[in-house]
Amino acid sequence: MEESVILHRLESRLAGQKIQAIEELIGIVKDSGKLHFNNKLSLFSSFKRILQDEDLQLRTKCTKLICDVLPKLGTDMDTCMSFVMPNILSNMAANNLVLKRESIKLVRCFSEITSDKNALVRSVIWEGIDSKDPSISREVILSLDKLIFNILQTEDSYNIVTALCKRHYVEENKKVKKAIRDSFNSIAGIISSNRMEELISQLPSSAITSGRELLQSYKHTDKPKVTSYKSNTKLEVDSAISLEGKLLWDLIPDSTLTKLHGDDVVEQLKAIAELESAIRRVTSPSDFLICIDEICEAIIKVIPINNFRVFKASTVLVSAFVEVFRDVLGDCVYPLTKALCHKIGDNKIAVREGTMKCLTQLMKVCGPRPVLDVVLVNLRDRNPRVREEAINVVIKTMLTFPIQDINVNTVAEYLVSALADHRQRVVNTALEAITVLKDRISTRDVGIIYRAVEKIDTPEKRYLNAIKDRLDKGTMSTLNDVGLVTHGEGCFSRNGTTLTGGSTSRMSNQSVSVPTTSQEKMQSKDGSVCPPTPMSLPRRYYSAGRNRLPWERPSRQNTLFVNNQAQRNSSRLLAPQTVGMFS
User: Fold this and answer.
1) Where are the alpha helices (DSSP H) in 378-495?
2) Each residue of 374-418: pLDDT tens digit?
3) Which of 49, 74, 100, 528 has its CA 20 to 30 A from that of 309?
4) Considering just the CA atoms, what is the radius of gyration of the chain in Å?
């Protein structure tokens, strides 16, 4: 096919034509082993725009094509790669694990065959380490030992070390700083600590403090085992040999990732089962430290899928991941808990049960504090079901773990603030949680609850009185057989009946203790204010008339009598009354 036609298709706005052109180029390279293209600079200029396309599949195909044609570019290779290198480095932070893998593989291949290694190092520093986007900077820094391993072994590493120390000096993002520390340890393991000390002594004053801090941290940590990366004749980057320094694609094949992120439920279930079995086969979790965030990201994408079978499989997957990687979870706790919290307000009891089990397992592994810090934030969620279930998670935590492992001050403030919620269910659940908290803490710490109430209470002490009334009842929430919270009082179900033995969460509505603005106060004939009606009363339906249940519809005879009586009363009221001597 003519070059002009291929370039025209690559510049098209239609994704289908771009994919067709890329597939034709891949076929040409596979058949002939060469890229018969005279205007290579125009071709890579088109690739540069495609690598910024919204279609991640298109970007992945383009990256694979560049990797295939790389050794066939000849003397134009460095110039052509200068067009696309910034976009390749930015794609390492993409939300697609396959694209991330192909980008790392491409840079790795280029670092082995390029004649201008200094230009590659400058590009990695300017477009990666010094990037204003923290996600790009973090991914490039974490992958330095894979991207330019042979350069670090053979060339001077001064520029890389200087860039890392400068970035560490000015960086405020904790994840980026952690990535710099991990990458620094890897580089120090490659070039030896003595050589690293020499490089740090030559750093400018703005970076030497950070350099010494990183070196001190490296000396007090277990030295990472250096892994040699070898490439075969096809310039495909092999995985790390043995069990050392394994990468994401050593654990999750491309086919599994494709099925995992697809739309076919059956294929997703198969992919989840494959991933679970692969995780359970891991014998040394520390080997996957370099890609544990990517494994966690792949799992998190499955949790929000609105399919019951997929969610049940994903809870088993999360359980396996937490069980196997329990010693190296680290920063994975926050995103896992955040993803699970989106399911705590689900309508299905089985979904809430599975979510509660996963959250409990996370608490057992890393302690309840980091998990509760994420759960309590959901008390500000727009969905009242999520707010109610978040409080039930707090109740279960207090009933399961020692109170010393929980930040009582923070929990008390969040629970008391829930008393001002406009949904009565949330208010009642908060009262139950405060009851459990008061029972679990010591007598001298009860003041924590009352001090939190004073911050939001009204002059009439409405919230304080509600808490005292609830405490006087002497009952407390417990856990049922499936691990869900059973409130201490009779519960109001959706069909209008009263459950005497308690029930699962979100079906527990006790009598109203804190009247909200939407609840009307009733007045008796003498003008005194009556207490609000308990919510455990049967619901009235207007289909049979005002304040009547369907089976309370009066007969026609009674209806006529009531109407006649009403007419007599109205006529008597409207009749003129005489006053004075003639009355």
Assistant:
1) 384-400, 408-417, 424-440, 447-456, 462-472
2) 999 989 888 999 999 999 999 999 999 998 889 888 898 899 888
3) 100
4) 33
